[in-house]
Amino acid sequence: MPTAPAARLLKLLSLLQTGEDRSGAELAARLDVTVRTVRRDVDRLRELGYPVDALRGTAGYRLGAGAALPPLILDDDEAVAVAVGLRTTAGSSVAGIEETALRALTKLEQVLPPRLRHRVATLQAATVHVAARGPAIDPATLMALAEACRRRERLRFDYTSPRGGASRREAEPHSVVSFDRHWYLIAWDVGREDWRTYRVDRLVPRTPTGPRFVPRPLPHGDAATYLAHRLSSRAWPYRATAVLHEPAESVAGRVWPGVGVVEAVDARSCLFHVGSDSVSDLVWMITSVDADFTLRDGPPELAAALRAQAARCLGALGEAGGRA
To answer: How far apart are CA 54 and CA 23, in angstroms?
Structure first.
């Protein structure tokens, strides 16, 4: 039975919004109409503001990008995913985005059918979201950094370091990374001729941006891994390396973000690099991975601190420890 025109138009829009190229014959078969009817429906969508492009060399169509955002057709799972994502975004550290996310969420929930509204409400009622709030970030700053990364243009910015004070920097930006409670810019510092990480909340971009540059290979292959290495190997007062007697892939999931860096050695062991403000923190970091280990290097006090921790644990068992 042929589909009513309005419903058919919505179904056509849903097919085009998958992002795939669709031939006229395929669309006609999916909608149970003729190719001529598909052409007329495509013209109607264009009149409504949807940029439907005709494919060259084939009788097909693709939904393009327009000057304005037209209404979207979401399936059930997509609608729930967007609602959950907006509610999570409302707890973001990006200044001003909370209100924007809540406005979008209100609009979405108003048009959700009852069955989906119930699913979203059930998930929300059963979920506790503890936002790891960091310093507020100006969205304009994030966009300026992201645009410089995309266009591969040098950045000039004022930077305030907790140790070095205020300075002016020039850098070749690589990536902007959201890690734990903070946003970081990873870039090649032109003046220092080395890779650096900068807290986004501590920098103020200057305009205009500088000349284009050819990207350099980033150490450790990707931005997330590089940042993890930088955060765990900064100039901590105390640093150590332990050999964990398990393969890297089996312990990586047990290492808390920012605690340390796991480096693969072979199929049976890996290195665990940690740094901290105190020796007692190093003890906790190494033992928290819950793996057999051998201390490779570290401050002289670390060996004594590990022995004290071992004795403390055995003492807590009392007589049971002696029978174990």
So the answer is: 10
